[in-house]
Fold this sequence. Notes:
Elements: H1 2-17, H2 20-31, H3 34-66, H4 68-89, H5 101-106
Amino acid sequence: MAFASFAVFRFLLGAGESANWPGASKAVSEWFPKRERGLAAAFYDSGSSVGGAIAPFLILPVYFRFGWRVGFVIPGLLGFLWLIVWRRLYYLPQEHPRIGERRAADDPRRNTRR
Protein backbone atom coordinates (compact mmCIF):
# COMPACT_ATOMS: atom_id res chain seq x y z
CA MET A 1 0.00 0.00 0.00
CA ALA A 2 2.81 2.44 0.79
CA PHE A 3 4.39 2.07 -2.65
CA ALA A 4 1.04 2.48 -4.43
CA SER A 5 0.29 5.62 -2.42
CA PHE A 6 3.75 6.99 -3.16
CA ALA A 7 3.37 6.24 -6.87
CA VAL A 8 -0.03 7.94 -7.08
CA PHE A 9 1.11 11.08 -5.31
CA ARG A 10 4.36 11.21 -7.25
CA PHE A 11 2.33 11.03 -10.46
CA LEU A 12 0.10 13.87 -9.25
CA LEU A 13 3.16 15.95 -8.40
CA GLY A 14 4.57 15.43 -11.88
CA ALA A 15 1.23 16.20 -13.51
CA GLY A 16 0.86 19.38 -11.48
CA GLU A 17 4.40 20.63 -12.07
CA SER A 18 4.51 19.79 -15.76
CA ALA A 19 2.83 23.05 -16.77
CA ASN A 20 5.50 25.13 -15.04
CA TRP A 21 8.13 25.10 -17.81
CA PRO A 22 5.85 25.87 -20.76
CA GLY A 23 4.13 28.55 -18.68
CA ALA A 24 7.44 30.14 -17.70
CA SER A 25 8.62 30.08 -21.31
CA LYS A 26 5.42 31.76 -22.43
CA ALA A 27 5.72 34.47 -19.78
CA VAL A 28 9.33 35.14 -20.81
CA SER A 29 8.35 35.37 -24.48
CA GLU A 30 5.58 37.84 -23.64
CA TRP A 31 7.64 40.11 -21.41
CA PHE A 32 11.18 40.06 -22.80
CA PRO A 33 12.57 41.05 -26.18
CA LYS A 34 14.23 38.26 -28.16
CA ARG A 35 17.76 39.32 -27.22
CA GLU A 36 17.01 39.10 -23.48
CA ARG A 37 14.93 35.92 -23.39
CA GLY A 38 17.90 33.60 -22.92
CA LEU A 39 19.01 35.37 -19.76
CA ALA A 40 15.46 35.49 -18.39
CA ALA A 41 15.03 31.77 -19.07
CA ALA A 42 18.35 31.08 -17.35
CA PHE A 43 17.09 32.86 -14.23
CA TYR A 44 13.88 30.86 -13.91
CA ASP A 45 15.65 27.63 -14.83
CA SER A 46 18.40 28.16 -12.27
CA GLY A 47 15.78 28.98 -9.67
CA SER A 48 14.66 25.36 -9.60
CA SER A 49 18.25 24.20 -9.05
CA VAL A 50 18.88 26.73 -6.32
CA GLY A 51 15.57 25.81 -4.70
CA GLY A 52 16.53 22.15 -4.72
CA ALA A 53 19.87 22.99 -3.16
CA ILE A 54 18.54 25.11 -0.30
CA ALA A 55 15.28 23.25 0.40
CA PRO A 56 16.89 20.60 2.64
CA PHE A 57 18.34 23.33 4.87
CA LEU A 58 14.88 24.87 5.24
CA ILE A 59 12.76 21.73 5.45
CA LEU A 60 14.92 19.54 7.70
CA PRO A 61 14.61 21.84 10.74
CA VAL A 62 10.83 21.85 10.25
CA TYR A 63 10.86 18.05 9.96
CA PHE A 64 12.92 17.57 13.12
CA ARG A 65 10.88 20.08 15.12
CA PHE A 66 7.33 19.28 13.97
CA GLY A 67 7.46 15.93 12.15
CA TRP A 68 7.33 14.74 8.58
CA ARG A 69 3.69 15.68 7.97
CA VAL A 70 4.34 19.36 8.65
CA GLY A 71 7.50 19.08 6.54
CA PHE A 72 5.24 18.17 3.60
CA VAL A 73 2.36 20.52 4.36
CA ILE A 74 4.38 23.73 4.65
CA PRO A 75 6.02 23.51 1.19
CA GLY A 76 2.67 22.53 -0.31
CA LEU A 77 0.94 25.51 1.27
CA LEU A 78 3.72 27.79 0.09
CA GLY A 79 3.17 26.48 -3.43
CA PHE A 80 -0.54 27.27 -3.25
CA LEU A 81 0.23 30.70 -1.80
CA TRP A 82 2.60 31.39 -4.70
CA LEU A 83 -0.12 30.28 -7.13
CA ILE A 84 -2.58 32.75 -5.64
CA VAL A 85 -0.03 35.59 -5.70
CA TRP A 86 0.92 34.80 -9.32
CA ARG A 87 -2.69 34.68 -10.50
CA ARG A 88 -3.44 38.04 -8.87
CA LEU A 89 -0.28 39.89 -9.96
CA TYR A 90 0.53 38.52 -13.42
CA TYR A 91 -0.73 40.44 -16.42
CA LEU A 92 0.05 40.34 -20.09
CA PRO A 93 2.06 43.42 -21.10
CA GLN A 94 -0.94 44.78 -23.03
CA GLU A 95 -3.22 44.44 -19.98
CA HIS A 96 -0.87 45.51 -17.20
CA PRO A 97 -2.32 48.44 -15.24
CA ARG A 98 1.06 50.18 -14.82
CA ILE A 99 2.11 50.02 -18.45
CA GLY A 100 0.50 52.46 -20.80
CA GLU A 101 -1.50 50.99 -23.66
CA ARG A 102 0.54 52.86 -26.23
CA ARG A 103 3.87 51.64 -24.86
CA ALA A 104 2.74 48.02 -24.74
CA ALA A 105 1.31 48.15 -28.25
CA ASP A 106 4.05 50.23 -29.88
CA ASP A 107 7.17 48.73 -28.31
CA PRO A 108 8.74 46.65 -31.11
CA ARG A 109 10.89 44.77 -28.59
CA ARG A 110 7.76 43.21 -27.14
CA ASN A 111 6.46 41.92 -30.44
CA THR A 112 6.54 38.12 -30.12
CA ARG A 113 5.48 37.49 -33.71
CA ARG A 114 8.77 38.66 -35.26
